[in-house]
Amino acid sequence: MTSINGYPRRPSVRAGEAIQLHIATSAPQFRVDFYRWGTTPRHAGHVEWPGRAAAPGAFDRDWQWPAYEFLVPPDWRSGVYIAVLSTESSSSMPPMDAREARILLVITPSAPSGCRVLYKIPTFTYQAYNTAGGGSLYSASHVTTHRPGGGVGGPVKGLPDPYDATSPRQTFAHWDAPFIAWMEENGIESDFCTDLDLHEGRHLNDGYRLLVSAGHDEYWTTDTRRNVTAFRDAGGNVANFGANTCWWRVNVEPDGSGLSCAKFPPGAPAGIDPDSSYGCPDHWWESDPENALLGVSYRNGGGHWNGSREPLGFTVTDGNHWIFSGTGLKTGDVLGREAALVGYECDGAAYELDAAGRPRPTGQDGTPKDFEILGIAPLPSDWNFAAREPMISPRAATLGLYTAAGAGTVFTAATTDWARLLTTDPQVASITRNIIARLS
């Protein structure tokens, strides 16, 4: 089969507007089929174009592949769309996840839709782990977004997940796809955007009550964080069903064409682990701890497991809290231990035990003092820890929430693998449903 691959000029586009797709193939003609992701992929349309060949580029420079303009129909619903590229006709449903011949697109509403939930797709994190062209933000300080990959259609840094080897961790298919499918199956309507959209100040002022993120949303720009904080301060709610969130500060080119991240201290020797280093210019926690927005940080959690890990779950600290309604969980019960819910990365807050033996945040790490720790998972001493600084409290993953004064509520699940258990653990599903129903 003749090879074909491509990438979008930008990862999102409003319904009714045109987007440029850059595609290279030696075939005389090719076809692009668009599928909207949900409980099952739904075919939305197709287009055929003449093929043009182009050579692969480097990871840090625009590949400048041939451009094709596609006008998104105005009636396309907001959602995540997979563009499947093919040079031969086929009547069977193609797999949505692949390391080539796929393009990820997010269709945003053409106007405020009245929907209450906005789901954030972490394209910056997808691109950070994308190794198309021979590099990523784990081997260099700058990458281009104008290359194949970025969620689907490109090679990815990292080893397979032993708990779900069907897709690489740092891709759309691994955490976001099952979470979105679960939402649709449960009748939860949502509009969609990318972190680039939020960086540019789009959508958060369009009447949404709840911003949702899931899985691994690791790379945030200053403007993305500022705009999400303003959304919270204006009464908007945030539900973070993931971990290692907002760990690295990333800088984006004005046109969205490239990402930069200064991970290493000046003069650092080659081969050091930046997660466990100090003086890293773009560590959020070293300059403006992400705890202030999210309540937690990877700094007080850990993970980065390439193999299996000791099964850990969250010990419930207040079974009467509304998030546990209908779960059957009581104070002292453990959520998700058998399926290793905590990991592969998890976030925590510095805490101490009160007179009743319940964990309370100390606030020493920037966590709001009214953050309620509703589930806690103390981490074993052999856990892979980040940011090894003088211990200000025991290390633990801390599930919980807080409500900012006169503003919105922020919930964190504090583990990347929350989405993995949605379809298999009724208690995880019930908590998720409670959070979204209450905060939206």
Search tags:
alpha+beta; Immunoglobulin-like; Rossmann fold
Walk me through this protein's architecture:
With 440 residues, this protein is an alpha+beta fold. The protein folds into two domains: 4-108, Macroglobulin (MG2) domain (Immunoglobulin-like, Sandwich), CATH 2.60.40.1930; 117-439, Rossmann fold. 13% of the residues lie in helices and 29% in strands. The protein has seven helices and 26 strands. The protein has helices at 123-129, 176-185, 195-199, 222-233, 284-287, 291-294, 426-439, and strands spanning 4-8, 12-14, 18-25, 29-36, 42-50, 67-71, 79-86, 102-108, 117-121, 142-144, 191-194, 210-215, 219-220, 237-242, 248-249, 251-252, 258-260, 297-303, 314-316, 334-335, 345-348, 351-353, 359-361, 372-378, 396-403, 409-412. The strands form seven sheets. Strands 11-9-12-14-26-25-24-19-20 form a nine-stranded mixed beta sheet, sandwiched between helices. A five-stranded mixed beta sheet has the order 2-8-7-4-5, with no helix packed on it. The longest helix is centred in the last third of the chain and has 14 residues, at 426-439. It is globular, with a radius of gyration of 21 Å. It starts with a strand and ends with a helix.
